[in-house]
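Intended use. Records like the one below are meant for learning the mapping from a protein sequence to its folded structure. Do not use them to infer anything beyond what is encoded.
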Amino acid sequence: MDFFDENELALLSQVSYEISFALTALADIEARQEAEQALSRSEHNLSIFFNQAPIGLLWLSASGTVLRVNQAQLDLIGDLPEQSLGRNFYDFCLEPEGGKELLKRLAAREIIRNKRMVLRGRSGALHHVLVDATPIFSASHLLYSSIFLRDITDRVQLEQEILQVSEREHRRISQDLHDGLGQLLVGAAYLASGLRQDLAAKSLPEARPSGRIVEVISEAIAQTRNLARGLHPVEPEPNGLMAALEALAARTQTLFKIRCRFICPRPVLIQDAMVATHLFRIAQEAITNAIKHGKPSRIQIRLTETAARINLAIQNNGRSMPARPPKKSGMGLRIMRYRAGMIGGSFAIQRSARGETVAQCSVHLPDLANMKHSSPGPQNQVFKK
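Structure written out for the chain above:
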């Protein structure tokens, strides 16, 4: 016996469907609320981590503008949040070109590790930092980049002090060799020369070996002077780097029998002896690397000044560098990059239009534009060897 007719069954089915739909909707709402709460907690935890991180953190848009910045980064550069947001990353860099180059590498999907850079704070103070950066892509579209900055200013200052102590010790040893041992050898050579003349005047057979003694002492004097010059190659004068590079070119040409020229179209006077010494050591290492690995027949050392920047380039026509440099560079390249970083400069190995290898170091000197070119030294000449 049927208790419900067709209409009543249809009504019951409709009511059952609506109750089921309501229960499902309630479950979906509850699940969505739980998901929203979990997302809110995750965002809250991320915000705490971001803002309380002990290193500087930045999120950059695809164009390089600051989307988000944490307190450590604000403390580093002395900004308020509204003063940083919307600015481009390279605006904070002492060398904006370095910041632009970083953004290009990120846009090319490169992950950056331990890149040395110098940031300028709102007060004008300079901060040395190590930069790690990771680009975040969606398919082929760059969404944003995360930037991590570690302040190494204190470490850099300590390294500079250690290097200064080392250079002072080199200078002291060089002076001792020149004024101490060198003078003793000169005196010995004088006495030996007098003895040789006396023996020769008496036509004694000992005159010939005594002459050889004079020759050996003269060789010792030359080696002592070369050693002293190698320990302290750059004189603490504004034109010291030019003179040292000219001597380096002449010495390279003599020792290795290859053509080596030093070109300096206009005088480049550097007041900071440490900067001059680092630039010389970079040129010296670049030449050593070129001779060792490239076997060139021609090397050119070029020193120029543009605005507040000093540029040093060592170009050689030896074997071309590979299209992709090795991931692990040699000790010489690391030393050159390190020395460039110590003086706030940049270093790169490039290929010239003619396929020659160019090691280039560029140093920004804020006070160079105000430097008076009144110091003694060569004027308006091109040094060539």
